[in-house]
Every structure is written in C-alpha cells, then in structure tokens.
Amino acid sequence: MRAAVLSAFDTPPTYRDHPEPVATGDNEMVVDVLAAGLHHLTRAKANGSHYSSTGTLPLVPGADAVVRDPSGRLRYAALDDTTFGTFAERTVIDIRRSVVLPDGVDPVRIAAAMNPGMSSWVALRRRVEFTAGQRVLVIGATGNAGRMAVQVAKLFGAAHVIAAGRDTARLAPLSALGADETCTFDRIQVAADVDVVLDYVWGEPAATAMIPMLTARADRTAPLTWVQIGSMAGSTAPIPSVALRSARLHIVGSGIGSVPARDIIAELPPLAAAVTDGSIDVRARAVPLAEITQAWNADTDDRIVLVP
Ligand SMILES: NC(=O)c1ccc[n+]([C@@H]2O[C@H](COP(=O)([O-])OP(=O)(O)OC[C@H]3O[C@@H](n4cnc5c(N)ncnc54)[C@H](OP(=O)(O)O)[C@@H]3O)[C@@H](O)[C@H]2O)c1
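Structure tokens predicted for NADPH:quinone reductase:
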C-alpha cells in the first residue's frame, strides 16, 4: 500500500510503500481512506509537539479522515493516538470514534471542515452554557477554525458576533459570513460586552486584550467565559492577575481531553449535516497524497485535504 511516511520529526513525510494496516481490537476495522485533512493538530502530532503526540517514529500522519468501511458506507473517523494515521490508502479506525455520513456528502469538504468546525461547535455546546441571543467574540477569526466559529456562533443563534484578527483586509470577508462587526486587536474594546470569547490565538494578543475589554465592560459582574481553543500566537499567555479579580472572568479550554471523546463524537453528525447543507462555508483544497512532501508546508489559506 502507498502512504505518507514520516521518518524524522524535522523533515516532511514522503510518499512510499508501507505495510498494510491490521485491525486487532474488537471495535477496529480496516477502511479505505477517501480524504484526510492536513490540520495543525496533524502537524503538531507529527512533529512531536502536541500533548497527544506519541513521539514514536516512523509514523503515518493523519488524525482524521473520511473513509469507506467494508460494507461500503462513508464514515468520518477521528483516530486516537497512533503511529498509523490516515495519510494512507487504508487505515484502521475504532468504530466508536466514527460516525456514518449521509449519502451525497463531499468527502473533501467534510475532511476539511470537521476538525476546524468542531472546535467552536463543541466549545459552544459542551464547554459553555451558551444560549441564543448571547454575544460572541472570535479571536483569530481569519483562520479556518475562526471563520467557521463565526458561522457556528450565528447558526446557534448568537445575537452579535465580533470577528477579531490582526489584519483588517483579512477580516473584511467575515461580514459576508455573518460577522456583525470586525476589529483588529488594538480596537478590542468594541467587544467589551460579549458573553463568550472563542480564542484561537492565545499568547500575548489574548493577554493584552483582557484588561481593555474587562475595564470597558458595562457590567463587570456579568459572566464572561473565555474559551482557549488554539494557541497560534503562543502556548503561554501572561494573564494579569487583576483580570481575574476585576471582572467575572472564567477561563476554560476546549479540546481533546477537556471534553470526553463520546461527547465530541455526539456533536459530529449535526456538524457534518451543516457542512453538507451549506450552512457552513468551508475552504478546502484537494491534493493527491502522492504530493504530500510539497503539501506539508504549503502556504495557503485553504485547508489542504490529501486524497489517496
Ligand atoms: N482545541 C480544538 O478543538 C481545536 C480544533 C481545531 C483547531 N484548533 C487550533 O486552533 C488554532 C487555529 O486553527 P486554524 O485551523 O484556524 O488555523 P489557520 O487556518 O492556520 O488560522 C490561523 C489563525 O491564527 C492567526 N494567527 C496566526 N499567528 C498569529 C499571531 N502570531 N498573532 C495573531 N494571530 C495569529 C491567523 O491570522 P492571519 O489570518 O492574520 O494570519 C489565523 O486567523 C490552531 O492552534 C489549532 O491547533 C484547536
């Protein structure tokens, strides 16, 4: 079988022959891979930096995929920590970490959307007491996950969604996707009265945004839940102590581990349906798996999806 194989943490995978996967557990099955997204999670696991990385080489990268099971059904599957990922013609899935997809889905769109889309979907459903009519700030709204977060928040009935980023030009298209307002980090006070922050950036920008936002808040005793989802600007953030005393600020995280796998899996079918019916716009670019070495570090706004 052909697969993308990573032999060192500091060099991209290469496309080559690899032994066939074998199902060993009761809930495992060998499946054909149709489309697998190249997400930040995928790269982080592959370079050994993600908290769920196994640190073992060689490995086949790929954290999730749209697959065809032996009975011919399409499934979306998320893999647990493994050295045998989805960037291959075939892989092994645990059926409990997969959902059957409806007929007619586009495997490339689903493979591109599920990882970035579930970040906000799961956060708003499982990490926050979110109700329709609340106000949401998305920090890092210009990325794949952030632009989907804007759309997911609107889909869930957010009354006002503010899209924040570092580049005015890149923020502009978010209005067409439902953002009621956009702002660069130096104008973050406009988001002072939100109920929820979905933060994909963390690091210095998040820490710097807190005090101007909190001090401009009309009612500082009103709950504000800051959901840490991504860390594009840094894995640590120097949060001022006064931020936690001067307002009713709750900081929580959302991701693998802070939400049980079964809860994440339960949210996948409605997300897949929203992607399929066009409620959520997705940036996807299909690339043959044979081109993995060039695609690995490609500079593109689209989510790359490897197609074996
Ligand atoms: N916890 C979860 O469940 C989960 C799920 C999916 C993704 N994530 C995480 O979410 C993050 C974003 O993922 P993505 O798929 O949206 O990535 P992406 O498409 O590459 O977008 C990256 C975003 O981060 C911004 N950014 C990058 N470096 C920055 C910096 N130094 N300062 C300020 N903004 C910066 C980018 O702004 P520009 O547009 O200006 O470049 C863009 O908005 C990643 O950390 C990813 O691992 C978490």
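The chain has a mean pLDDT of 95.
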